[in-house]
Design a protein that fits this description.
heterotetramer, A mainly alpha, B alpha/beta, C alpha+beta, D mainly alpha, A: mainly alpha, MetI-like fold, elongated, C: alpha+beta, Dipeptide-binding Protein, domain 1, D-Maltodextrin-Binding Protein, domain 2, Dipeptide-binding Protein, domain 3, seven-stranded mixed sheet, four-stranded mixed sheet, 13 helices
Chain lengths: 281, 534, 496, 315
Amino acid sequence: MSALTRPSSSAAHPSLWFGAAMTAIVVLIALVSLVWTPQDPTAMEMTQRLQGPSALHWLGTDRFGRDVLSMAMAGAAISLQVSFVAIAFGMALGVPLGLFAAMRGGVLDEAAMRMSDLIFAFPALLTAIMLRELFGPGALNAMIAIGIFNVPVFARVTYGAALSLRTRDFVTASRLAGKSETLIALDHILPNVLPLLIVQATIQLSLGILAEAALSYMGLGVQPPAPSWGRMLNDAQTLMAVAPRLALVPGLCIVFTVLGLNLLGDGLRDKLDPRLRRRQA
Amino acid sequence: MTLLVLDDLVATLDGAALLRGVNLRVAQGEIVGLVGESGSGKSMTALAIMQLLPERTASTGQILFGGRDLTQTAEAAMCAIRGRDIGLIFQEPMTALNPLKTVGDQIAESFMLHEGLAYAEALDKTRAAMDRVGLADIPATRYPHELSGGQRQRIVIAMAIACRPKLIIADEPTSALDVTTQAQILDLLRSITRESGAALLLISHDLAVVASMADRIAVMKDGRIVEEGATRSFFGAMRDPYAHALYEASVHRPARQPMMNKTAPFFVAENCTRLYRKPSLFRADPQPLRAVDHVSLALSPGESVGLVGESGSGKSTLARALLGLDPLDQGTLTLDGVVLDPARKQDRLRLRRKVQLVFQDPYSSFDPRRTIGWSMTEALGHLTEPVSESDKARRVAALLEQVGLAPDFAGRFPHEMSGGQRQRAAIARALMTDPELIVLDEPVSALDVSIRARILDLLADLQAQHSVTYLFITHDLTLLRAVTDRTLVMQKGKIVEEGPTARLLDEPQHPYTQALVAASPDLPAHVAGLQSDV
Amino acid sequence: MIRLLTKACLALVLVTASVAMAPLSAAPRTDLNVGMRLEPPHLDPTAGAAAAIGEIVYANLFEGLTRMAADGAIKPGLAESWTVSPDGKVYTFTLRKGVTFHDGTPFDAAVAKFALDRARASDSVNPQKGLFEPIEAVEVIDPATLKVTLKRPTGAFLFNLAWPAAVMVAPQSAADNKTKPIGTGPFKLDRWAKGSQVDLVRHPNYWGAKPALNKISFKIIGDPTAAYAAMMAGDVDAYPIFPANENIPQFQADKRFTVKIGNTEGKTIVAINNARTPFDDIRVRRALAHGIDRKAVIDGATMGLGKPIGSHYAPQDAGYVDLTGQYPYDPEKAKALLKEAGVSNLKVKLILPPPDYARRSGEIIAAQLKKIGVEAELVPVEWAQWLSDVFRGKNYDLTIISHVEPMDLDIYARDDYYFNYANADYKALYAELAATSDPEKRKALIEKAQRKLTDDSVNVFMFLLPKTGVWNAKLEGLWENAPLPVNDFTAVRWRD
Amino acid sequence: MSPLWLLRRIAGLLFALVAASAIVFVLMDLLPGDPAEIMLGTNARPDTLAALRAEMGLDRPALIRYADWALGLLRGDFGRSLTYSVPVAELVQERLAVTLPLAMMAIALTLFIALPLGAFAASRRKSLTDSTIIAVTQLGVAIPNFWFAMMLVLVFAISWRLLPSGGFPGWSAGPSAILALILPAIALALPQAAILTRVMRSSLLETLGEDYVRTARAKGLTRAEALRRHAFRNALIPVLTILGLQFSFLIAGTVVIENVFSLPGLGRLIFQAINQRDLVVVRSVVMLLIASIIVINFCVDLAYALVDPRLRGRS
């Protein structure tokens, strides 16, 4: 544990590069879809229902004659957006909570961590169902439902890392330099926790994509006419025997994205997390 | 008769050379000391003998053990040799034992494995083995976490000697232990090898330890043996410059002016008590541990005071209290005649302006994500008036120069520097606010011997320049003698003896001090003894 | 992993083989596995509105005084005949003799009086209590004769008595009918494995003709894919209403199955809150009607199987008039109408209850409305919310819903109904209809009522939900249409 | 195990249960919609609705209803379903007969796949086999379980017609009941197994690098023996943590998977009950699930103490 964040010179992280490339592709497609898709992803053409792949519709059309490729592209943007917001939500609440608990300790510490345990015990899906019942379904609810579960995750990562950092000599040195606890948290703890948070964020991003897909699939997440991979799967379910392609496309999109993010997360962790490299030192 | 021959042993891992041709002989019943600094390849040599080198390690050369080339021995046969014919003792008693198994079971495993005993019989022999290593009063059903470090190391030794091997390899067996424990463990190793007739390959970074134990000494550097010879003639006949330097550094005493005219103390701690309470859910711990128990000390300008004690003696807790890092349960701190209450922020800042700290571990004392310059100037503006960026840069450059570092080190990150460089930077940081007292918490114990000597010189120079007071916290009596005027001996939270260092070490009064002095290997004295023998 | 799979496959082959080797009987089967989309919450049709209750128990387990035939005609049930007084206010029923409930309790006029009085009592929890509202008094003349006096002539009274909510229940067993239904029908409850299936077996002492089936199992498989696989595998013999229209072409192409696209009474409409600006303006409502392409919605939402309707009336019912041409799809005209009404940048909320037809229609309709400059936000809700917000609270702009009650022209005449139609002319028209018993006059009035609703463009009338019946080709006697949400299996048999 | 430690843990457990019950009740009470309305449909009249509400006890104050419910739970009385009109305990019992075997099959499958596969990969570190296993698990983690379920249905039920695609014939149907659970169990287990395989592998690798494993090797144990006798049990500790977490995922997973396969299990019961506003069922079953997660986590903590003597405290 000699250096929590000693940058690695090694370029031999194939999973990092694979993951980064895959993620970059998805992000790029999502960005492109904001300004351009081959067809309007919401434009229906009843005469073109359930067409197979063609020059005009590369991946065919869905039950309303919409272009599947365009929907999948636009779906990337929405899935990423939901996950990103959910992570921002989780970080915005979780990181200060974890920092605070670690720096203060005592009863507050205990209470904060018990609360996060409790949140963990509530199955995410049930929370999403209840949120839907309370506020109606929609992308925002999906974000909050997923975000709520990101809070304890980030709180714990921050808490754990901050707790061990707090006893490190350089923090003591900073204290001896007359810095307040708040300043120490901002100047030393946070920057050192950051790499871990980035790794965790990558992992949560992939979990968020999966969760969004599951919620939208259950009709609890993104609502029409906004296209989303989970919704496309929901739509495809009754057409499984007729047009399995409709279930295959969004499913593979999810797998590709999540795989990319996981590889990226693994690679980043190998690069940044000292625990796995301790033995090489 | 020769038991072990290493013949031009070469090992490489992923293109990096670990061993570059090691030649070494160990005779039956002989104790050979293998000395080297970190990275010299001494541990790799041990693993090579055991044929436990990391996977993908390529090696050439021969390892003849009792005439059999171990490099050509099949893995199954090697398993029969390990533990039966060669026993290995590791450095870290904390991690060398499986935490989930009782110590008895772990020792018994050897008997069951090599002597084909049933569990019950193996347990009987285990009892005997534990008695042999001085653990007669420890039940075999204990788990490792229930034992102290020294006890665990005895368990590891019991395991290594269980089947009465012909060769015992001990890799830094006492580095993680306190001085008195170290002496006991070394005694145990010596008596066991003598009694069983086994050979011992003792690997250490500490020339003093090796000199006191070994029949023969070999010095290793960069994967090679650079100097070798019988202990009695070794120190007189060193030809290799590195071996010589190593010896010099080990016995180095920085040139320093002893304090002559002692003035009135500027820093006084009186009756300091610090309690340690076990956290309890329901009520206050009725009998809190007194980590620091009514300790008083007074420091005068320019003097160098040693604080010695073993781990758990309370010396680090005392240091933290003196620095105002932890509150005092009792007692007062007086700085320049003013009584300070560390619970008050203003007083804390005042205290820290005058009292600074240099840490033991140079690797963790700098924030890995900040440049050295940033870390050095952290205190400016908090403990002092606000300082302009250009002034900051100027002061950093000046201090870096004083500690022997180029000014461009200010822009470097900690991982871009060696341990010695970091420790220099840490000293420079401590000087940033012109303190009157610097607490040095084992400032050189994490450094290799050769670097250690240079840091000690630097500290002596700086003291002369800045007329700053040092409070040296250490467990190393040789070091104390070299760098301090006065010494306080701490045991179980109390100062048990204090006095001028030379007097205290030469004529210890308190039984604890006497034990400490007796247990500490003293290389110069030992070498002097050897040479007078010749 | 691969070895595991191989083993699983092997186990499978063994099981399949043992099933296949079961002796094949020559006699026709007497059991029937029926697929159901939804599970009933309980089995008492007099205490719950869920269609699934009637779909299991009606005519099979419970019987009413009158009963609905497959063609929608009213036939004698437990009343073998009746007379109506000339003023249309007194009905005298002659009850069948020798009828007993499954527990042996005899059925007579006293029981019938109990059942009717219970349904209309002040603490009644009957979901269709309105059916009994016209009743003034019920009298037992003798054990086989029941006299019902109405407050006013009610043309649909016999029809009302044929509803599932009007079945006959006995005083001793009525309270427990939810879980232990005791009726007079040819089948009685055998077992209810909650969440998966309801089994009915033949009641040996049935008063009427012995049905061909001995046992009916209602299997609850709502998931379309599972339903499809279950039909294909023969686990289910019949789906009176298959849960997904998407699979219908595949069944049609398969000789093993009979596919009947029949009619339900489910009139699917885009309901409009007539009281809310700008929908209080008839031009806006007409603009909506012109702006929605009925054909595209039917194609997209029902795979082309729904029948278009032009008013709130099903084509198969007496007095139907085809008004589907009144508001042809014409976005330009729709825009012009909106402009005329001074409406621009209209943003509305389109509330969608859970069924697929609503969700899918909503998606298409929103896209169509966008073309006439109306921004429709889709708000999917669960039934609970739909009922409280839309139906009870009338807090909505537009919603898509199927009205499944047959011939329910009355709802437009109700005060305080969620359409907020409140039209005095229509109320007068309906009052006249309600008081008319003569079939020809009724037909004329019904026609007039339909025209009135279409002219006022109260709602946008879309299509009739299809009854997508799929069953084993060897089965006969299943209903092609669904005049009520019921499944009468008394005449169902297996052909050899 | 020190009594104080146990006491603290039990206190934490009780606190969590009480807090969870309060949260569940409040959330349920906030849900819009009236169960009476759902039952009676669109033709119901206001007086009929009021009568039904009174019959179901919905007109009483919230605090009293909470107290009734919580005390009932303590007595093992889960209340009576508003829609099914049967005791919730009975419903739960029926549904558990599907969910419990399904969860057990899934966990068993997960363990049977993950532990050997992870250990195997760790023992062949950096070999082709290892890389292949890693790649496959990486893929397994990325696949959404409901999509995987759909694909299984597509292949095994629709294309090959080997296994039922959904529905549950009841345990009285014998082997076909087990067949009905095979695909759902696989759909639940494989993504979990992928995660656990990775955890097992990395945990074992980490343990294999520990000093005490080297000590064991120095003692003369072969690689395999050292792995089995010294590394395996230590490596199980993180596996246990993940397994505890996976239980909670499994619960959420069954809700989705039971819906995909139309299985009459607890998850589907909750989903239906929420839509029908059968609040009594929802809150009791949700509470049951949450309690089981909390209790399982408690058991995981106890299991740590069993595996790891360091947590038992000095005797």
